[in-house]
Amino acid sequence: MKLFLAGLLIGTTLSMSALAQTPSLADSIRVALFLDGHIEIDGARVELGNASAKLKASATQHHVVRWYREQTPNGAPSPAQEKVFKPLLTAVADLGLPISFTSKPDFSDVVKLN
Length: 114
Description:
The protein has about 110 residues and is α/β, with parallel strands linked by helices. The chain is built from 3 helices and 7 strands.
């Protein structure tokens, strides 16, 4: 499963069949990875070395992870994202929580995969 997710996120453009509106973010850990490589968890900037602890603390209160990765024009990760992507995704996957993907930085949609 981890390899499947990694393949989806680091490689090419995701295949999207539909985008559904997300009713509430209250039960979600919001993870965002930006083009410059900085990470935000629940709206707070976090260094990669502290991400795992922040995720574990959030997992005690939330039951799903919402993942956002800022896109380059060609859909591939930026060089800065590539440096933090694998360890960040591993920390997220190690929580054992369901992961949903969003195409918007405000987490207002859910990407549905074919």
